[in-house]
């Protein structure tokens, strides 16, 4: 695996990767290669887009609208060479909740608002901060989403007849158990067969489109045997053969208030998911994405998707990885994948009506299994108690409470864990054994602070310094190993300087970095009544102390 550079040149921060690729030179051979790659990605995206849409509580055609319009715009405008945009499994829970609460019109409005928010996040260069989401949080919420997706497909996979399926997982499981008598053996066979075909193809012929082959086989078996199971056609009718005319979502005061919380959730998850996917593509290709341009493109893609009746667009890890592995030369392959999906709608949309919903449930079961990051989850549980707590809390809140709540609480818990760990790094150590102290007795004390001196460490380290400062007349504190100081640390030093301001006492700070000195002075280190001297080194301060003693 090649390693990408750490950050893009600032002058190119808002340049789409498509322009970069075209400037580098893009010829007929590249176009032919990207055409093959685009077909490969489209074959993967076709069943997934419809399955994710159905699981999200909307018609399969809206999944295709999202993949076509959103996928084209993500590739054309994005900051990643290889990102493939479209509907993602991670959004199933949120989209289904939004549809249940606000209806289709509310979903489209929330998607449009989310697009505006993503453009703003990218334009204000906030993409770099979104990537700071702690790893245990991303693993926890991804595993939680996988469990929810899997639970949402039990009813379809078993062909059950439900009067109403609750959104919350525990009531959902209770409703499924109550309807266990309606299980259809034919649907179970189709769902199980779909899973087996996908896994078998992946094992024996990994280059073949296992999901599409499984769905086609299930559709053929359903039609040939006349199986009494629900299909896309029986539930949703015939798929449209063209994109709808673009139209702005319905906007009103009440509609905006209802859609806004969902839009915020879409924005948060979309930004995390798309940048995570871009980072995966960077690791596979050795290239480097432009975070803020990617977010702007994601925003435009969401607005475009909403205009055509689609829903949330984000970078999709599985399809992006397929794009890289298939040999993509750049964003053109992603644009072609969207156009090929459009061609499917124009030519072969009626064929999708034969696809059994149980087969799509099998597809999503495989997606959930693959996205669960099982090895990473168990690895975090074994790594440390802190990481285990973060990943478990995030996972349980996502599954049993709310996706956004899980992310926020997990992030806060990770922050507290980080503060605790960093507070144990900073320590105060004696530096009194050197020969330069010979003859100075107990009137001079030299101590060194090691590590960041911030609010998490200021209370402990500050109290240690206060106890030491009660003895010597000259107190030297070396800052040569302090990389960072915050206002709490500055206040602790100011209080120490106040204590050392009695006649005959002197406090020296040595080797203080310019930025830290500026912060200290800004917090009153040089004010009246605070006697504090800055020197370049401990030796200089000791020489001055020796001179003051006449020796």
UniProtKB/TrEMBL annotation:
Transmembrane segment boundaries: 35-56, 63-84, 90-120, 132-155, 175-199, 211-233, 253-281, 339-369, 389-419
Protein location: Membrane
InterPro entries: SLC26A/SulP_dom (IPR011547), SLC26A/SulP_fam (IPR001902), STAS_dom (IPR002645), STAS_dom_sf (IPR036513)
UniProt KW Transmembrane keyword: yes
Keyword Kinase: no
Protein's membrane topology: Multi-pass membrane protein
Main localisation: membrane
Keywords: Membrane, Transmembrane, Transmembrane helix
Pfam families: STAS, Sulfate_transp
Domain STAS residue range list: 442-545
Name of the featured protein: SulP family inorganic anion transporter
The species this protein was found in: Halodurantibacterium flavum
Lineage, highest ranks first: Bacteria, Pseudomonadati, Pseudomonadota, Alphaproteobacteria, Rhodobacterales
